[in-house]
Amino acid sequence: MIHELAARAGVTSRTLRHYDRIGLVAPTRVGANGYRYYGPDAVVRLQRVLLMRRLGMGLSAIAQVLSEEVDQEQGLVDHVAELEAERDRIDRRIRSVRHTLEALRSGAEPHMDVMLDGFNDRFEDEVVARWGEKAFRAGHDWWHGKSLEEQRAWKQEVDDLVAAWVDTHRSGAGPVSERAQAMAARHVEWLSGIPGTPTAEGDRERSIAMVRGLGDLYVDDPAFTGTYDGPEGAAFVRDALHEYARTAM
C-alpha cells in the first residue's frame, strides 16, 4: 500500500501520488476502496527514480530516460556503475580531507595537490588514455591508501632516482653503458612497485611499450625535460630506457 511504500522509501505519500500523475511510477493496481498497491516492478521503478534523483537528475530528465529505455536490466547495470563511480569519488574526497587533517595535526603544511585530490586529478585522463581505467584506479588507490609520511618517503625515493639519473648523465656515461643500464633496471624495478602498471602485472609486451613510452614522455613533456637535467639529460634517460627495453626485457 502507498503509506507502507512511502515509509520504506523515505518519501511521502504525496510524492508517490505526484509520481503517478506525471507517469513516473504508477501503482500496480488500485483497489475498489481507492487504495494503491505497488508490486515488485513498481518498486523497482521507484528505486530507479530515487537513484536518479540522488544523482541530481530532474523529474523530466528521469521520465525521458525511462521512456526511451528498452532493457530495464541494463538500466540497473548502468545505475550500479554510476553509483560505484560516485562512491569512488566520495572515497577519494574522504582520503583527501583525512590527509589534510593528518598534516594539520602533525604540524605540517598540507600541500595543495594532496588537499585537492579527489576533486581534480591532473593525470587521470593521460593514464586512462595510455594504460586504461583499471591501471589508473589501481595506482590511484595504492597512492592514496598511503599515509602522509609514506607518500613523502615514496616521493623521496623518486627524487633519489632522478638524482641518480642526473649524476649518471653528468658522469659522461653513454646510454648503453653498464652504469646507464643499471639505472634503467633500477627505473623499471621502481615502476614494478606501482600497482596497475604493466611491469607490476608482469605483462612483458605492454611493459616494454610502457618503458619506451615513458622514455619518450621524458623528452616530449617540458616538465620532465627540466626534471632530468634539461633536454640532453632527458634524451639520455630516454635512450637508456629504450636500450634496456630492447635488450633486457
From TrEMBL:
<dbReference type="Pfam" id="PF07739">
    <property type="entry name" value="TipAS"/>
</dbReference>
<feature type="domain" description="HTH merR-type">
    <location>
        <begin position="1"/>
        <end position="68"/>
    </location>
</feature>
<dbReference type="InterPro" id="IPR000551">
    <property type="entry name" value="MerR-type_HTH_dom"/>
</dbReference>
<keyword id="KW-0804">Transcription</keyword>
<dbReference type="Pfam" id="PF13411">
    <property type="entry name" value="MerR_1"/>
</dbReference>
<keyword id="KW-0805">Transcription regulation</keyword>
<keyword id="KW-0238">DNA-binding</keyword>
<dbReference type="InterPro" id="IPR036244">
    <property type="entry name" value="TipA-like_antibiotic-bd"/>
</dbReference>
<dbReference type="InterPro" id="IPR012925">
    <property type="entry name" value="TipAS_dom"/>
</dbReference>
<protein>
    <submittedName>
        <fullName>DNA-binding transcriptional MerR regulator</fullName>
    </submittedName>
</protein>
<dbReference type="InterPro" id="IPR047057">
    <property type="entry name" value="MerR_fam"/>
</dbReference>
<dbReference type="InterPro" id="IPR009061">
    <property type="entry name" value="DNA-bd_dom_put_sf"/>
</dbReference>
<keyword id="KW-0678">Repressor</keyword>
<dbReference type="GO" id="GO:0003700">
    <property type="term" value="F:DNA-binding transcription factor activity"/>
</dbReference>
<dbReference type="GO" id="GO:0003677">
    <property type="term" value="F:DNA binding"/>
</dbReference>
